[in-house]
Amino acid sequence: MTYCLGLDIGTTGAKALLCDAQGRILATATAEYPLYTPQPLWSEQDPADWWRGAQTALRAVVAQAGARASQITGLGLTGQMHGAVFLDEQGRVIRPALLWNDQRTAAECAEITERVGAARLIEIAGNPALTGFQAPKIVWLRNHEPENFARVAQVLLPKDYIRWRLTGVSGADAADAAGTLLLDLRTRDYSAEILDKLEIPRAWLPRVFEGPEITGTLRPEIAAELGLPAGLPVVAGGGDNAAAAVGTGIVRAGVVSSSIGTSGVIFAHADEIALDPHGRLHTFCHSVPGRYHLMAVTLSAGGAFRWLRDTLGKAASYDEMTAAAATVPPGAEGLLFLPYLTGERTPHLDPLARGAFVGLTARHTPAHLIRAVMEGVVFSLRDGLEIMRGLGVPISQVRATGGGGRSPLWRQMQADIYGAEVVTLTAEEGPAYGAALLAGVGTGAFRDVGEAVERCVTIAGRTAPNAATQDKYLPIYTLYAGVYGQLRATMHALARV
Questions:
Q1: Which of 21, 120, 149, 163 keeps 20 to 30 A from 380, CA to CA?
Q2: Secondary structure element (H or E) that encloses residue 14, with its range
Q3: How far is CA 261 from the centre of its chain?
């Protein structure tokens, strides 16, 4: 029996997972590390913490599984996207890494847009300049820490710093590299035009591989420390969303995922590049070689649900809240909720958007508020689906993950509002599982990503839309979709108060 490892360098911790060639999970292990906010809107981590977390998780998962080192044939990497690790000529970390959720680079985004051009950025890189991406972080270092900038010899994404420590290879995968804002989606390599206009040396950036490609092998001294085979192949892997999509089978047209965690994500596979000219959707390379994906993001999804629980001041469980919501009819008797509690990404790209209940009456109870919040989150995710449909992306099945997949009410609500079958999966282990499957593809356990998914990803349950409820939601969604435009000016004025 042979096994594959997946390693996820997340924002809160490192997760290692070991599975066999049938996709059965033998063991998982996690190791947490801190996040630092030295100033408002700043978000940083120490790459040394990632390295310690990766070592701890890898050692623990191998010990847990009781597998012989010789049975482990490959390691795939995944992790938080967009971060910037700056290294000097000796490979030393110059300063703490700037993370995906760091918001300090608004001025740099404006500078990048002016230098490259808004339409040209989307045409080449598939996205507008947003504060989360890596390119604005590089420009920020030049503008604000010139002494550190003068020392830079390499810029790596978070998981690729771990790759470098494991193998000595400076490499990235196409899916994660697409989130730097420096990649040309068509060539799946860095854009000479963007690099030239931003004055970023190509030599600083790692080689780009496809997701299942072997990037290097484990250094002997590291293998000995971790109890892994010397020369173990390390596969490119993917950014966290793309790797998770492999683990949930979003690798062919027509199948999308709907993840409701703290944030909400609609992820769609695309055989060809599909660009939203307004930049409301992210378009990135996929971890499937030669393929792409589109992603819509709702910033406060499950986060809005938690906010309501905390605001109501009740010690209710989420199950108790959804049970209360189930007693209220669709549409919450005329109550709408805009889930823009932390601004909004898709479709508005508006950091000053604000949450709102619209239509409150004396009749409405906490159960109505709960139902309205749940519906508002799904309406917001449908906004992303509608943009995808407008770009010609087929949507025949939605795979529900996160809290939205575990709750029967959330599942039915999604099926009715999306107008598509919603399915759940037997195993939902997130990005580390997808990274392990990519390692299996790269080392020959599977012929390709499609075979890995066919063999390992299985459907546990199906929820079909209820035609009558679907009809009720159509006019309510139309009303929801119009509210932001009517309140935008007021939201922005309130943000300035």
A1: 120
A2: strand 13-20
A3: 11
Q: Does pLDDT of 214 surpass 90?
A: yes
Contact predicate 231/197, CB 8 Å: no
Averaged confidence pLDDT in the chain: 94
406 residue type, one letter: R
What are 299's two structure tokens? 């910033």
Cα 296 from Cα 287, distance rounded (Å): 17
Task: Look at residue 470 and give its three-state secondary structure.
Answer: helix
Q: Are 288 and 243 in contact (CB under 8 A)?
A: no
Contacts of 397 (CB under 8 A, 6+ apart): 254, 255, 256, 420, 421, 422, 423
Residues marked as catalytic: 240
Q: Is 174 helix (H, G, I), strand (E, B) or coil?
A: helix
- Name the token pair of 293: 């994906």
Q: How many CB atoms lie within 10 A of CB 385?
A: 23
pLDDT of 315 > 70? The answer is: no
- pLDDT, one tens digit per residue, over 3-27 is 999 999 998 899 999 999 889 999 9
Contact by Cβ (8 Å): 211, 175: yes
Residues 307, 312: Cα–Cα separation, whole Å: 9
Q: Is 221 strand, coil or helix?
A: helix
Helices (DSSP H) in 391-448: which residue ranges? Answer: 403-406, 408-418, 431-442
One-letter amino acid for residue 316 of the chain: A
> Per this entry, what is the length of the chain?
497
Query: What are the tokens at 296?
Result: 């819509």
State the Cα–Cα distance between residues 74 and 439, nearest whole angstrom.
5
271-296 residue pLDDT tens: 999 999 998 999 999 999 999 999 99
pLDDT in tens, 101-134: 888 999 999 999 999 999 999 999 999 999 889 9
